[in-house]
Structure formats: structure tokens, C-alpha cells
Design a protein that fits this description.
Layout lengths: L1 H20 L49 H8 L4 E4 L3 E7 L3 E8 L5 E8 L4 E3 L11
Antiparallel strand pairs: 1-2, 2-3, 3-4, 4-5
């Protein structure tokens, strides 16, 4: 009987020695992560914004007649545009009036106007010919 008690104590003590002798925590190594390198995924086209003169163009009557004519002729008559975006093939320009926007599209190579769109943004309608009545706050 003594041998059984002694073996129980021996097993108990050896279990405690094994459990307490094992290291339960890891030493954390300091890992230095490299700084992320920024990648350029998208580069938008550069927009050219042309500032408008102090003179405000109020009347665009006959602007639709400049279709298939030079952009320079249109600018000579109506002044500088309010906004321009120049791309490799086409250029887009915009004149602002009270209630309308006049959009001009031309080829970049020869500056020939290929599209003129007059849009009344307050009434949400497109106009074929410019009308001061439809595009002003009267």
C-alpha cells in the first residue's frame, strides 16, 4: 500500500514538474514591416480651365450656326468659354448663361466644331436654337 501511495505522489509530482517546466508563452519577435509603396492606379486627364473675362456674354443668339466652323471664330464673337477640357482627339467647352449651358465639342486637330448642345438645366430640356426667353431669369 505504501508503494501505491508513493507511486501516486511520484506521478503527481512528475506531472507538476512537467507542466511547470514547459514554457507556455512565446517570445514575440519584433518584425519590421516595410513601408507600403503608393501605386498610381488612375491618373485623370489634365483639365484646362480658362478664366472668363469681366465681360459676361449674355446673348448667344445664332450660336447654333457655328456648326462645322472654326472654334476661334466662335470665341471671337462670344468671348472666352467658362470651362474647357482638352483631350487628345476632342475638346469640350462650356458657356454659362442664367438658366442654360451651351456645350461645344470640336476636333483637337483642326478646331472644327462638330457639336453644339444648348441645355436648360432648370427646366431639364434641350433647346435646338438659343432663345434668350428660355435661357434667362426674366
Amino acid at each position: 500500500m505504501n508503494l501505491v501511495k508513493l507511486s501516486k505522489y511520484f506521478i503527481y509530482i512528475s506531472f507538476l514538474v512537467i507542466v511547470s517546466g514547459c514554457e507556455t508563452t512565446d517570445v514575440e519577435e519584433k518584425v519590421i514591416k516595410p513601408e507600403p509603396v503608393p501605386k498610381i492606379i488612375y491618373t485623370p486627364e489634365v483639365e484646362e480651365i480658362i478664366e472668363q473675362d469681366d465681360e459676361i456674354v449674355e446673348h448667344f443668339k445664332g450660336i447654333e450656326l457655328f456648326l462645322n466652323k472654326s472654334l476661334n471664330d466662335l470665341i471671337l464673337k462670344y468671348g472666352k468659354v467658362d470651362f474647357s477640357k482638352i483631350e487628345s482627339v476632342y475638346e469640350f467647352h462650356r458657356f454659362n448663361t442664367d438658366d442654360c449651358r451651351v456645350f461645344i465639342q470640336n476636333r483637337s486637330i483642326d478646331k472644327t466644331i462638330i457639336n453644339i448642345t444648348i441645355y436648360n438645366y432648370k427646366n431639364n430640356l434641350f433647346i435646338e436654337k438659343y432663345s434668350k426667353d428660355l435661357c434667362s431669369d426674366i
